[in-house]
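SAMPLE LOG
Freezer: B-3
Tube label: C17
Construct: single chain, 169 aa
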Amino acid sequence: MSQRQQSKTDKDNWQTPERVLERIQATDPIDMDPCAGEGTEIGDINISPPQDGLSYDWEGTVFCNPPYSDKTAWLDKAAAEYQKNTVDRVYVLIPDSTDVISWWHGVIAKHCRWTVFFHGRVKYIDPDTGEQVGSPPHGSALAIFGEPPEETLKALKEEGDVVKRPRFL
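STRUCTURE (predicted):
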């Protein structure tokens, strides 16, 4: 499972629950997690502290659960890697803050073809106990840079509302 890297707050250390990963892994295996938590291995390549996944070139199908306190840097990196054609797709787990001009409208709306808005709040994993804990005080979304396989989109529809950006229709 992916964990947020280089935390600035305790809430940045929460790991991704299987609910988010299993539907992707079953239909679009993850090659790289540039923001892996200690001991988590969801991709063939997993970059975790003290290494900085922002300083690496990304490749293949990428999954990233960035620290929410530093999400803009990770989203900018995802957009840059996708624009360079070094990745097939990048899945980024983010807050569903559609009102934020800087990162939602500045990065997600401009560069992501798809967004998944999960049914209910996502319950993250406490990295110390390995157990599911409470949800953040907001919903979560999965931003997708690139075109996922049709099977992945169908699987993700079971977890939430899958929306394609109008400019990509």
